[in-house]
Amino acid sequence: MSARYGRGLPHLAAAVDLPECFGAEPYVELVRLAERGGLDFVTLDDSFARPGPDALAVLSRAASATRRIGLVPTVTTTHTEPFVVQAAVATLDWVSGGRAGWRIEVSAGAGEARLFGRRPAAPVRQLWDEAGEVADVAARLWDSWEDGAEIRDASTGRFLDRDKLHHVDFTGTAFSVRGPSTVPRPPQGHPVRLVDATEREARTVAARYADVALVRAATPSQAAAVRQELRAGAAGFGRNPDTLRVLVSLMIDLGDGEHAAEPGHGGGGPRATMRGPLYRGGPVDLAELVAGWYADGVTDGFHLVPVEPRRDLERLVNGTVALLQHRGLFRTFYPGGTLREHLGLARPANRYAGTGTNVMTGGTS
User: Fold this and answer.
1) Mean pLDDT across the chain, nearest whole number?
2) Could you give the count of Cα atoms lying within 13 Å of 345 in the half-sphere of its Cβ?
3) Does the bond joining 180 to the residue before it have cis omega, within 30 degrees of 0?
4) Which of 17, 170, 252, 307 has the most beta carbons within 10 angstroms of its beta carbon?
5) Helical H segments across 21-158, by residue range
6) Is 75 within 8 Å of 56 (Cβ atoms)?
């Protein structure tokens, strides 16, 4: 492998959004196609602002139909209960065998607030501050069960080791949680947390809590600048910047073939649009873009959003990914079974292990 690629191989992920589709099977078909290409993970967007199926439920269905690929639904932290959100994400990690992620998002619209009627819409900055607190307490709740807390010994009637179950006692600006969680510690310890850090309001949360940050950028210099900012922010919070994966998020339209004539497309790279940066061209040119931006240290990989889901994902897997694999620039198999392993991230240590603080619970122990 060339020295240009000394950081290893790029990470690749794809969106499997299907507007106005409510059945699970079309989503499952796309997830299985992405897994055939060896992608690190898929995302499925969700919002209170538009009709559509629950992303977490759909990817829970996809878990049983796949074996390796990571599954990352969007779950908003606004108008939802942090305790319920973390338990749902932990459950996805359990049913998928350690392949769950969580794309953290906020809901800023007044129409979304009226759906719940609990509070008015709030400024985006305030909502992202709250999202950071939810990300924090979720990790604490995932740690509230130590590994091995479940005994399940029928002969003695002991189900739990109460010394390995912990209170959280978290008080935030908009909620408080005592814990412990109702779900044992997930297989990954902490499911992977993902934040779209394109907008400045989200960057503090991404730098402090995210394992993966997305950046919608149309130029290498723009992507590199945000990546550098996020890594510096992570270091400022006491994190090792190398534990934060920063991926460029691009819409892709692979229907026009190689070297599309319009300037800014194809071999010329992405162009800015009202919906975000768009690459239009062919699979070969896209492979060149992925390899070039990664080799230049602009990004740790790419999150690709097909404009026409089935067509573009097929061309991504059968064209772009196959070419990268042929050149030794993308893996040909999954070396591990969990999303953290795909991303090269360690399983976090439990913050409560060995602290001596525990919680008494009802029931037989």
Assistant:
1) 91
2) 30
3) yes
4) 252
5) 24-36, 55-63, 82-95, 110-116, 124-143
6) yes
